[in-house]
Amino acid sequence: QVNGKDVTSHIYEYTTQVGMRIEKGVVQLVPKQQPVQILFCLKEKNQKKINSHRWFFSAFGRVLDPNICVLLDAGTKPGGNSIYHLWKAFDLEPMCAGAC
Fold this sequence. Notes:
Layout: E1 9-15, E2 18-23, E3 26-31, E4 37-43, H1 48-64, H2 82-92
């Protein structure tokens, strides 16, 4: 408890040191150029995926107003460039609403 109220989640923030640039229509990663902000929220109680998505879009989405959101299930280990390729799909097609 904090101030007499139950803790519902733990939030961690990390800013990467990897930037991105577009060269001849291709996005490339550039070390130590432009940071990317990453948030991790660990809920105290597992109330399933839909509840987690509701939390994300209702709380974090409204405050941060992100261009692209990536949601991963617990235990998922993305491949080396998979999140980049996901981001690239959205970048190349602005009308894209979802990708996997």
